[in-house]
Please model this.
Amino acid sequence: MTSNLVIEVIDKFNTLAEIKKRMVKRIVIVSIIYVLFIVAISLNADKIGDYFVLLITISGLIFSFFLIGEIYRKYIIGFKPKNNKITYSNSENTNFQLKKISTRPFLFGLEKGLISDDEFYFDDENFYAVNKEFQKAIFKLSDITEISKTSIQINNGRLWQVKIKQGTADEITFKFAHNYTIWNKNFYHFYEKIKLINPKPECDPIVLGQSGRKLGCRLSP
Model:
């Protein structure tokens, strides 16, 4: 099982490296073409006349949109997890003991393609994903296998992910922005509770907020 996991990690790493290599290659080629085009029209500015500024502006916009598109494909498309096998249920009784650990950051609508649609809570035993219809998906805290930050940052805060593995079912991943502040330490308490349940995590130290708390662990199965 361990060898299969290592092979899977290596395959994912090689795939990501190949994607990055192709992206860099496209950017270099288009950049060279753009520079050559600018040089060409600059050398012929007298012949082009009034169209010179227009061509510079249009080519600059096209190049900018290309770069934005490459960044979007690299960091946004496919970043948001798609969990199609989650069962939500209506809950008539509101549990006031639930502690919220997520918030909705603002990035002009782009955040919708980066974080999960649910809001996230926990109590002494379970982790809750609450959808827009206020239905709950309930997971045992002991089924959480990883809590770690991602490479995406919004409003000076990293997005985080929680991974859940229930028996032989597919792994479920949720991505969200935590609501940790000086006055609200729910996310920190959530992390500490998971750490108590699984006391031997493989940790990559991560500073959370201005308090200097270091979080971020892949928990042992």
Confidence is low (pLDDT under 50) at residues 1-16, 201-207. The radius of gyration is 23 Å.
